[in-house]
Specification:
With 141 residues, the protein is mostly helical. Helices cover 68% and strands 9% of the residues. It contains four helices and four strands, in the order H-H-E-E-E-E-H-H. The strands form two sheets. A two-stranded antiparallel ribbon has the order 1-4. Strand 2 and strand 3 form a beta hairpin. The longest helix has 36 residues. The protein is elongated. The relative contact order is 0.07.
């Protein structure tokens, strides 16, 4: 049992698993941010333009609901909910823009690091000086 626990601990503490876990947590939090940005900032603005507070209420009714004499719905209405669709598109575009910006910044940093001058190699002394240094060291012994 101890060996199994040690192996599990080694697996969990491996860099790849921890990086993936952190990525999932950050992606979840980022999803909440973009959803809030779309729902709380952009959609009210678009709703103001289209004249409705709730963009999800912007539907095109293809066929209205059929109701019988007692008020029960016999056939459901067929609607096209383009307000929800517009919200989803805006959400996607925002996420794509942020991911693009992050990838672009990482690529620029990587290029800058690759283009950075490498540390200069120490100059090799003259071969005659090396030989004289070796002779001196041998004479000292």
């Amino acid at each position: 049992m101890k060996k199994l626990m040690a192996e599990f601990k080694e697996f969990i503490m491996r860099g790849n698993v921890m990086d993936m876990a952190i990525g999932v947590i950050l992606a979840t939090a980022f999803g909440k941010i973009t959803t809030s940005l779309v729902n709380d900032v952009f959609m009210p603005f678009l709703g103001w333009i289209f004249g409705t507070r709730d963009m999800t209420a912007l539907n095109v009714i293809v066929r209205p609901a059929e109701v019988d004499a007692s008020g029960e719905v016999v056939k459901e209405a067929i609607t096209i909910g383009f307000g929800t669709f517009v919200g989803t598109i805006i959400d996607f575009v925002l996420v794509a823009l942020v991911v693009f910006a992050i990838v672009k910044a990482l690529n620029a940093a990587r290029r800058k690091k690759e283009e950075a001058p490498a540390e200069p190699e120490p100059e090799k002394p003259d071969p005659q000086i090396e030989l004289l240094t070796e002779i001196r060291d041998l004479l000292k012994k």
